[in-house]
Amino acid sequence: MKNYITKTFSSKKSNFLSHWIKLLPLIFILFILAAPSFAQKGLSRVEAEKLAKKEWTIEKNKLRPAAEKVWSEGVIRFGKYTMPFAYRAFGDKPADGRSLYISLHGGGNAPPAVNDQQWENQRTLYPIKEGFCIVPRAPTNTWNLWHEDHIDNLLDSLIRYAVILEDVNPNKVYILGYSAGGDGVFQLAPRMADRWAAASMMAGHPGDANALNLRNLPFAIYIGGRDTAYSRNTLAIAFNQKLDSLQRLDPQGFIHDFHLYADKAHWMDHRDTIAISRMASFTRNPLPKKVSWVQDNRLQHRFYWLSAPVETLSEGAAAELSIKGNQITVTKSTVKVLNINLNDKMMDLDRKITVIENGRILFRGKVKRNLNTIKRTIHEYQDPQMIFSVKLILMGDKVTVKNS
After folding, report:
1. Residue 90 near residue 131 (C-beta atoms within 8 A)
2. Which of 1, 43, 139, 387 gives 369 a disulfide partner, CB atoms 3.0 to 4.6 angstroms apart?
3. With a threshold of 0.85, does the pTM exceed it?
4. Cα torsion for 182, 187, 192, 194, to the nearest 10°?
């Protein structure tokens, strides 16, 4: 009897499995058809955060071989340009990651040997207590050696690789430079403001630098009162006055510091070394509540939580937006296609979002966190502190949600 029961049960089990095996193709089809409905529900905050970490880890692993090659060679390349660099770590690594100082040498339109000597000299100028210091050698020997178009790409890569290989905290990245390096800081600090925690300009010339982009970047100027070549002293004073004026209009922004050494010419006898401790007191806020973005003649595709397709941009295109609670206010936008990138650190994405311009509501509704947006912004920014799960697109007076 026992054997019979076992045999009968075994037969029923076999028939049961056979029945479900036949149904598997149908179940698979139903799952595929249902998949869009799962996607339509959107991600929860916890799911979005987990996926952001996972996708950033995948991106880091993709970038690591290139980073290791650059670090081992001490040379980084972009297109036809080659940039050697010297680097050194100082002090013990903090729990939240190392600081990174990028220090730009002087020289400029001079024989290569002069710029080589300036590169060597730059390594000795600034005492750093904690951090990873990179002193690059400019790829060219032109007057604008630190603010030609390719420099942004090269510095972006250096930051990215330092984060991956040296455990640099992307919110503690600083830029400084002397003479022609100061010229570079005047240009690179505004146009790459969202990469830096603070910037210090020593003995440089502002050229056509736009101060508006410095709204969220602590900026310091160190200049000799007798540094009259190219009117460096008077132009530095004028730039500081511009920052004074902007801060009076916007007291929450435009933190700046100005040091005029009246008895000094182009060489300040190391008085400017106080810049290091000042910069170290700041950390970057990657998601400020207000962003002012003006395009330089070197176009940028991203700036804090705003981005735009480069092919739609032009010099002078500008945007100013702010966030309060779940409301986004567009004060100004002459950018043809402006992406407003959002995550849960910025607002409550489980509640309705409102976009308003000149008192008119352009958008009001709930949005869905999206894996494709997480992946896209990781690729766009390559910064673990700037990963977004929602992308709104502002074109003229219309706002749409990017869901794919």
Report:
1. yes
2. 43
3. yes
4. 70
